[in-house]
Design goal:
heterodimer; A: 264 residues; TIM Barrel; 9-stranded mixed β-sheet; two-stranded antiparallel ribbon; 11 strands; globular; B: 746 residues; alpha/beta; 5-stranded mixed β-sheet; 30 helices; binds iron/sulfur cluster
Chain lengths: 264, 746
């Protein structure tokens, strides 16, 4: 679908949204409304939102429709309904996906509108976006929720299918600008939770002067049934849902990191 | 006093003390005989005589662990406002059924029959029913609301009685006697004599307890701890027979025994009444906070044993307290006692306002978070104004508002506000649909259809108002409720019993059921039938009549229509329309029924499930027999747009046009753990936007499911059902499913 032009510069009037979650408690500070944009250029082996990957609206085998065209102002109408809760909790809107910046112009439209409404905006991103565009969004983002998926570029390539070129540049941009950021770390036992991963994570954390916290997101298989529904083969992940002990162990890896570390 | 072998206790899970039957009904027959002898005495004298007969027989001796005296086992025939039935009461239906099904045979069946025969025409309930004029009989043909389908039913009871214990505790029994002499317009009149006689009954109950204890102290059966505690109680009781209480313990004792004799189930502002005694004892160093908490635990266990799971309100906090600081100390200990007891009663409730000692609200969240379901929270910033507007009262009066039972509002010491009718809105809607199918010309537009529904609601609401007044009148002519009238403002000075002109405000309430089931159904009818012409009213009716058999697609379409609880304009606007219509209809009939107030209460215990059993399928997609929505809450599980959307929907229903509604919220334990700051913010925003009330169950889905599988392991799991709390495992399966289906906010 071609984004409809709108009167905001570089903004699309409509986009494809696959979910809006109100009273989200795990997508940034406070009570938030999370807006999930459809489409993602990555293919993470553990993705629990397979219905978010394709850019077009899909109909699942069970008849469920994934995604709907929404106008940016329509989304904002829902978002602003919870202003009282944002104010009392220090919350706001979180744009998530998929990879929300992949619908760049729509994502931008939402951020512009949030700014207009003085609603705190988080961008939940893998960071896989042309650096010029990433920088262009910066004035509109109050807090980045930035994924840290693998130890190095080989890991990224093999686990998510992309090169880390943009991600590295964009991280460097966040380092330089000391932008407020939380690192979001999907942890898949036996897949990406290597010692090298934690070494890299600690090093990255040190470089981000605006770092506010690290959120460890343990793997779960709740999304698995959705693969079949959207007609995708279930990735053959040699892993299991982590137990409490495993989670403890991960948290230990972050001892002394100097910022808040949470467990999903 | 009752001998222990005549009491069946299931004190562990269900607190209800009942006499063990069949015990041949000897007591009931003796009560009956006594009644026959005094039947034609003036009401006050007759009541005094019957109370004097009743109490020696129904008091239960102190049980091991009790720190205060006062347990009751109600018989089948009794006098009182509501415990067994209204006024002079006998459970005819239950006895008839049990004789019929062979529970009583031989001699006991004979005696049961004799009771039925005597009481059927004489019990107060019958007299109330007989006083219905023909038009009321027609609109309310049945009393069997729990066993039959119907639009509206009368309820027989006098509830919503709360007085201040301040005078009693300040003056003691002796001082009260002087008051009767000094303030009665006719100090020797029948009512004043009745008051004296009632106090005499209370004193002799104290004496009985005292004697029983002293006799047991000479034996060897009591543990050391019980010996000490019981001896203390005996001394207190001796003191209280003549003097005013001088300690917190004595004040608790007097308050409690008086309540049992009065037959009240809700206890006013106990923090105000008992707080000063507590504070003085603590400050003098004669009582520690720990000991006071343990004493309150005992008092609360006695309330639990007194059992009325729908009542037993203890209110703490709020505006309009004279001894606020002392009361706050009581409030904190009361919450701690509830936390330790982990029982479904009393229904501890907290009123709070900006500027109140924040410790109270903090403590409340701690206790709620531990899964106690208490305290129930009331936002005074909103509630006082709501009561002023709904009841048309000035602020000074409204400050003394209180919820009782499941949450109906009343004014301490000044009003009686019994719900004496229930109304089933989805049933009315279904009958409207049937009518509209027969007379399509009258339902050409949705507004015309709604109007048909609204007119029927209004006619039945009017009936409810008249039934209310009739019940007050008949009961008022039957007995003055001596203990209650004595402490209620105005009765003494006016020389009139509570319901014969004694009480200042005669308020009445009507319990509405299935409000949201009804409004969701109307939303679906409006959108699917009238706006989109997807099917006709006749097709819809046919599908509902068949409980959607062969109409699955239609049902799914109905289920997809917008539902209340999602901050959805269409569904919420319809909920408002239904809400306003029924609320304003009620209040519009107060005057012609000669009531000071007549208001709707949307509080719902579990009658939403009971009524649902007999209510056919509804146009919101609900199947026949399933629970109706509870109170103002979304239909179970239909609020799927997040907690904030749910709260926003709730906030759209005005809370100043009725006498109470229940906001049930089910939260995941994490919100009271790591997410507590978010929970506080969530509730903070809710209150700020005008939320007036919340009752919160903290539970995980996993636990509820496990409790259904292995009930023996989950006796401690407490849930809020409607306006009351229960151990989950004690609920009927359909109620359990209703609770499970409600959205869990995470
Ligand atoms: S970035 Fe997120 S949505 Fe995209 S594939 Fe990875 S996990 Fe799935």
């Amino acid at each position: 679908m071609n984004p409809t032009p709108c009167d905001l510069p570089e903004c699309a009037e409509t986009g494809i949204v696959f979910d809006i979650q109100r009273a989200a408690m795990r997508d940034g500070p406070g009570i938030r409304t999370a807006v999930f944009l459809k489409g993602c250029p990555l293919r993470c082996a553990w993705c629990h939102n397979p219905e978010s990957q394709r850019f077009e609206i899909q109909t699942g085998k069970g008849g469920k429709r994934y995604g709907q065209v929404m106008r940016a102002d329509e989304v904002m109408q829902t978002v602003t309904r919870d202003r009282a809760y944002y104010e009392s909790s220090g919350g706001g809107m979180t744009i998530s996906g998929g990879e929300p910046t992949a619908q760049y112009a729509f994502c931008r439209a939402l951020l512009v509108l949030a700014k207009k409404e003085a609603i705190h905006a988080c961008l939940d991103t893998s960071g896989h976006l042309e650096p010029e565009r990433f920088a262009a969004l910066a004035p509109l983002v109050d807090l980045y929720l930035f994924d840290f998926k693998a130890a190095d570029s080989d890991g990224y390539k093999c686990l998510t299918g992309i090169s880390t070129k943009w991600i590295q540049t964009n991280l460097a941009f966040l380092e330089k600008t000391a932008a407020p950021v939380r690192l979001r770390c999907p942890l898949v036992p036996g897949v990406n939770d290597t010692p090298e991963y934690f070494t890299a994570l600690r090093a990255q954390a040190k470089r981000l002067k605006g770092l506010q916290g690290i959120d460890l997101l343990p793997y779960h298989d709740i999304g698995n049934t959705k693969y079949a529904d959207v007609g995708m083969p279930l990735p053959d992940l040699k892993t299991k849902t982590p137990d409490e002990e495993q989670k403890e162990h991960w948290l230990k890896e972050l001892d002394g990191i100097g910022v808040e570390a949470t467990m999903g | 006093m009752i001998s222990p072998r005549h009491i069946a206790t299931q004190a562990d899970l269900s607190p209800f003390y009942t006499r063990e039957y069949p015990q041949l009904f000897d007591y009931e027959l003796a009560f009956t005989q006594r009644y026959r002898a005094v039947e034609n005495e003036p009401p006050a004298a007759r009541e005094a005589a019957m109370v004097a007969f009743q109490f020696p027989h129904i008091l239960v001796p102190m049980q091991p662990g009790d720190l205060l005296a006062g347990r009751i086992a109600y018989p089948k025939v009794a006098v009182g406002p509501q415990a067994v039935g209204v006024g002079y009461s006998c459970p005819i239906r239950e006895l008839t059924r049990d004789v019929g099904n062979g529970k009583y045979t031989g001699q006991s069946a004979e005696k049961a029959r004799a009771l039925i025969e005597f009481w059927q025409p004489r019990r107060t309930q019958t007299k109330v029913r007989e006083a219905f004029p023909a038009w009321l009989q027609e609109l309310m043909p049945s009393d069997e609301w729990a066993w039959e389908a119907g639009e509206t039913f009368p309820l027989y009871r006098i509830a919503g009685l709360q007085f201040s214990y301040e005078t009693l505790l300040e003056l003691g029994i002796g001082g009260l006697r002087e008051q009767i002499a000094a303030r009665s317009p006719q100090p020797d009149g029948a009512l004043a004599q009745g008051f004296h006689a009632a106090l005499g009954v209370l004193v002799s109950s104290m004496r009985r307890y005292e004697q029983d204890i002293r006799a047991r102290l000479t034996g060897q059966t009591l543990s050391v701890a019980d010996r000490n505690a019981f001896a203390q109680v005996a001394d207190d009781l001796e003191h209280l027979q003549t003097k005013a209480p001088t300690s917190f313990r004595q004040a608790c004792q007097l308050m409690w025994l008086y309540s049992l004799h009065a037959g009240v189930w809700n206890y006013g502002r106990l923090d105000e009444d008992l707080g000063p005694f507590l504070a003085e004892d603590l400050d003098r160093g004669v009582l520690t906070e720990e000991a006071a908490t343990v004493l309150l635990q005992s008092l609360f266990k006695l309330m639990h044993a007194y059992d009325n799971r729908f009542d037993n309100r203890v209110m703490v906090g709020g505006k309009g307290r004279q001894y606020e600081e002392d009361a706050d100390r009581f409030a904190v200990l009361a919450m701690e006692a509830v936390l330790r007891n982990r029982l479904n009663q009393p229904q501890l409730s907290l009123r709070f306002y900006e500027g109140q000692n924040p410790v109270l609200y903090e403590k409340a969240l701690e206790v709620i978070g531990a899964g106690c379901t208490f305290p129930i929270l009331y936002n005074d910033e909103r509630a006082v104004a709501d009561v002023m507007k709904a009841h048309g009262l000035d602020e000074q009066t409204a400050l003394q508002w209180l919820p009782y039972g499941c949450g109906e509002t009343m004014i301490l010491n000044q009003s009686v506000a019994t719900p004496n009718a229930i109304i089933n809105l989805p049933e009315i809607l279904n009958r409207t649909l049937a009518y509209a199918v027969k007379k399509p010309k009258q339902a050409k537009t949705f507004d015309a259809f709604f109007d048909l529904y609204a007119r029927r609601v209004d006619a039945l609401m009017r009936a409810g108002a008249f039934v209310q007044k009739i019940q007050y009148d008949v009961v008022g002519q039957t007995l003055p409720f001596l203990f209650i009238s004595l402490l209620y403002d105005d009765c003494l000075e006016r020389g009139r019993g509570l319901l014969e002109g004694g009480v200042r405000y005669l308020s009445g309430t009507n319990e509405t059921y299935g409000n949201i089931t009804c409004s969701d159904a109307l939303t679906a009818i409006k959108q699917r039938v009238y706006q989109k012409n997807k099917y006709t009213l006749a097709q819809l009716k046919k599908a509902l009549d068949a409980d959607f058999e062969n109409a699955q697609a239609l049902r799914e379409d109905l289920l997809r229509a917008p539902k209340f609880g999602n901050d959805n304009e269409a569904a919420d606007a319809m909920a408002r329309r239904v809400h306003e219509q029924v609320c304003l209809s009620a209040s519009s009939h107060a005057k012609e029924a000669r009531l000071d107030h007549y208001l709707v209460v949307i509080i719902n215990n579990w009658a939403n499930t009971l009524l649902g059993r007999f209510t056919g399928a509804t146009a919101d997609g609900r199947k026949q027999g399933e629970s109706l929505s509870n109170a103002n809450n979304p239909s179970a599980g239909m609020d799927r747009s997040g907690t904030t959307a749910f709260l926003n929907s709730l906030l759209k229903l005005d809370s100043d046009v009725h006498a109470g509604s229940v906001q049930n919220m089910k939260f995941a334990p994490s919100l009271f753990g790591r997410d507590l700051p978010r929970l506080k913010a969530l509730m903070g925003a809710y209150w700020k936007q005008g939320g007036s009330q919340a009752m919160i169950t903290v539970v995980s889905r996993k636990d509820l499911e496990a409790a259904m599988r292995e009930p023996e392991k989950w006796g401690h799991l407490m849930v809020r059902v409607g306006g009351f709390s229960m151990r989950f495992v004690e609920l009927d399966r359909d109620v359990q499913l209703d609770i499970l289906a409600r959205t869990l906010n995470e």
